[in-house]
Every structure is written in structure tokens, then in C-alpha cells.
Amino acid sequence: MRTLRLALCQINLVVGDIEGNLEKILSYIDKAVTKQAEIIVFPELAITGYNPEDLLFYPAFIKKAEEALNEIIKNVKDFIVIAGLPVKKDDLYNSAAIIANQSLIDVYHKIYLPNYSVFDEMRYFKPGSRIPVYEYDGVFFAVNICEDIFHPSLPGLIQVANSAELIINISASPFYAGKYQKKTRMLTTRAYDMGVYVCYLNMVGGQDEIVFDGRSLIISPSGDIMAMGKAFEEDLIIADLDIEEVTRTRLREPKIRWEICFGDREIIKIPLKRKAKSKVVLSRKESAYEMTEEEEIFKALTTGLRDYVNKNGFKKVCLGLSGGIDSSFVALIAVEALGRDRVIGVFMPSRYTSKESRQDVYELVKNLGIELIEVSIDELFEEYLKSLSDTFKDLPQDVTEENIQSRIRGNILMAVSNKFGWLVITTGNKSELSVGYATLYGDMAGGYAVIKDVYKTQVYRVARWASRGRIPERVFKKPPSAELKPGQIDQDTLPPYEVLDRILYLHIEKCMGQQEIIEKDFDRDTVKKVLQMVKRAEFKRRQAPLGIKVSPVCLGKDWRFPITNRFGG
Q: Which tens digits make up the pLDDT trace of 119-134?
């Protein structure tokens, strides 16, 4: 009987921390060896972390990754390790090293280089052209990298036509809500259509604005999920594969019998014998339950914030608390991500702050168990008004005075940050940032925008799911307001958020112009106003802090519009 024990090491890596990544890789090799794993797999660019971006232009960085690879090779004996790293030959490649017997058996180069959304791999890498298959004591397996498996032909189909019974795909696939379900359908279809085991390994953790959700998969030749990695957590997934199942499946359903392999058939023999193993079958389906959108988004936000704070060495975070839903939700995320002792709320009331907002801030702080600093902005605001009284003589108060209040608050938060070394996290949502309903150098001031990619209506839904009574009930029910003038509510300036968010979704995620959106049964004047606001706010978005991507089109690397732009749409 041909069986194979596989270990998928779903780990959280740090870009540029090659020494730390190496240490983690070696520790997981040790764990997998104790489980009698024969093939031990690590994610795409595991040695350097994903994505190194312009670090890849530095020869010293590439050399350091090569040195780490050599260290791994020394520690690989009578088993196989597959690990991702950048490799410099005639050019630079996104590669997978195949290691056994303290030797580098081969290096596979990624063929399909994504150059959309947050990806920019064609800036750095040359695509590979070889499509080898590896023989391990009568078991034939192939390796490809992330985007390679997303294509229905090359390289997977040729690998299978060249005898591969197992495809190992190492990946760094960023999260957005709903992507996992689409990806799972694609991977199970690949396995079923080709009658092959598909072992998909995704990394986990946050890197700047992107989050990797893990949820690695081992899929049988009949398209059934055999094992699944944990969501948003490190994991070691061990599974025993009955390779004869491939033969049985293909004899029953010979879907690839007539596939023609073009080019030379490259089979690389690995000089190892398969080992006798314990009889325990270790495959499992932990975390196989379907997450709701609310749970997915909340876990992504907490993972992204936790890793950004920890990987960049911040001890604590601070944020402005207003008594509204956005700041309450961000405070809740921060506590979940970091613990209550590492989160500081700053309440900065003014003459326009309502009694209810004050009560809601203090109730939230009590429920979350976090420290609160209160600094009134009234005296500072009055000083601004006095200092500008001659300049603004005979002119009515307008958005200028509103923005002064917001910028005073931004200054206070940054002063606290400078004094104590805390990271300021901002609380603006995607709806506000899209239309510019935010103050540059005011409520936009900070180092990390936690809910930058979450629409206002999503904020309410996810916050309700996550709250468990910690966010005061009134926060969910009162009309949202910036409280920068008497009686102000958001809907004085914006359409209802249910309408606004739908228009923004169609424009941002679906690339619809004005007339197309109007034809979806929206009011013409409302659509025109919203799209004009989006266009005018581009200069603000360029200066906003980075934030966590949870949608297909985040207002960061996914969104690249010229500020100077006369296209009407």
C-alpha cells in the first residue's frame, strides 16, 4: 500500500525577520518529524515573509535568504521539506526549494505572477517555465505556488499529465470576506477534475494592511476535504494520504486520460525510501464550520491589528472615544486583539458633546476594563476662535470651525502618542473615507486605520455580533453624529448609510459609473452627489494611514485613482 504522511506548517511569519522565520521553520520541522511526517511543507516566501516588496531589490536581502536556506538544508535528513523563498539565478524568481537528504533536490519557480489588487509580483520576479514532477519511492508529486493553482491549465494539468498524484501548492493568499468560500470551491474542483490530491498551504497573520487567514486544505482526488487548518491561527496539519486512491479514482473516472503533455517530461527522483509509520490516521477537519461574514471580518480585524502592533514593537495603543459606534467598535477590536491593559481611551469633550455621549463613553470603558484619559478641548477651541477672530471677521461659522475641533483632538492624540510611545489607531470607516466625511489632520490623524475597509452598515452588523453586551445598547440606536455643532447628525450631509453604502459598493467594488448605478433604481441627484464626493476626496485618501483589507477593493493599494482627474463617469 502506497501511503504518505504530509505535514502542512501554517505559520505566522515576519517580513524581513529572516533569522526569526528560520528559527520558526526549524522548530516546526522538529514538530513534524516527531509526528513521522515524510513531506513537510512551508508557505510561499516563508523564509523572507510575504510580501517583502522593495526589499527584494537589495542583494544583501536575497543573500540572507539563501544563507537561511542553506541552514535548513543542513537540518533536513531522511525526509522532504518544501519551503518558499526568493531565488536569484539569471533573474529573480518566487521559488519553492525541494530539500531532502541534506541536499537541495530542485527549485521550482512560480509561473503565474499576480499583478492585481495588493499584488505587484511582476515588479520583482521573472516567471518560471519548468514544470517538473518529483518521484519519492514510487509516489509522484508536484509543487506549484499560489496563483499557479488558480489557473485551470498550466501548470497543474501538465503536472498531472506527467504522472503527479499529489499537487502541493504553497501560498500567501490574502483574506477578504467571502474569498475563502470561492477559493475552496476552486480547489475542490481542481482536485476532482484532475483526480489528484490537492494540498493547499496558506500562511496566517497580518502584514501591514493585509491579513492571511490560514485555513489550509487537504483535498482528496474525489474533491472531498480531508483536513483543514485553523482560521487566523497557526497550525500544524498532519494527514495520511492513500496514494492508491488516485489510481482507483482515475480508473473509475479517466478525465485526464487524453490530456497531452507538451514538452519534455521532467521527473526528478528523490533518493529516499518511504518509512514505516504508526497506524494512526491523523487527518482531521478542525475549523471546518462555515464562518459568518461578521465573524470573518472581526477575526481579520483583530489579527491585523495584533500583528501590526506586535510586529512593529508597540506596547500600547490609544484612540479617541466619542461615544459613537465607530470608536466603540475599534476599542472592542483593540481589547480583543491586545488585551485591556494595552488599550487607552482618550475622551475629548467639547461644548457640543452630549450628556448621552459622555455616559456611553464611560459605560464602554467600564465594560471593556480599559484606562481612560479625559481632556476637554473647549479652552483650546476658544483660543483658536479668538486668534482667528480678526481674520474671520464678519464671516459666519461653517465647516472651518468644525474641522478646528477635530484637529485639536488629533493634536492631543498625537501628543499622547509622542509622550508615551503609544500607537494612535484611527476610527474612521470606509463609508466616511470614501466620500471624504473626515478631517485631514483631525480624526484621520494616526498610525493605523483599523476599520478603514469596513462600511458603516457593516460596522453596525459586526459590532453587534462581537459586542456581547460590552458596547452600550444606546450606541447602536442613536443617530450617528460628529457632534461638532448643535444638533448635528451625519445624515445632514450624507444620504442614509443603507443607501450610501450600496452606491459606494457598486462604484468601488463593481466599477459602476453614474448612469449604471442610477439604473439600479437609485435617485439621480443622490448618486451624482455621492460620486462627486468620492472624486473630490481622493487627496484625503492619499494621506490616510494604512488600514486592514477585508474587502475585494480596499481604499489603499486596490484603489489607484489620479487626484487630478476630469473624467465624469
A: 999 999 999 999 999 9
